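Supplementary Note 3. Input sequence used for the single-chain structure prediction.
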Amino acid sequence: MKDNIHDKRTFTLEELGILDTEMHKLRKTKEAAWALWLCMSFFGAHRFYTENYVYASWMLFTSAAPIVIIMILIMQDSGDGPALFFLWLSVIMLIGSVIWSWVDAIFLNGRIENLNNEKEHEIIRRIMNTR
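The predicted structure, written as discrete structure tokens, is reproduced below.
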């Protein structure tokens, strides 16, 4: 991080303008991340926004699959052993998904800051390589 600050001090006004323009395009905002978390946190929308696709996909799976299973089991209206087991397993998965999304919220601001720092470092590296 300190290298980035030092590198930026040696930039010309044109290079600083390029850095600012690129960061404006690539920067992720905390407001958007929190809005996504608030509306669709247990589907992993905030994780997709922060480009953490593996965790986002798992969050989506652990929320969407139980919902579909519960809907199917409710429509079948069968109270036998396997159906009851899958119903409770799906409910537990949903509860786990909600807890995961709440714990995930604790780290959301830091994730945004780290992502923006990584993007800025990448842009600075590109600018330095074009010199």
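The chain has a mean pLDDT of 90. The CA atoms of residues 67 and 90 lie 7 Å apart.
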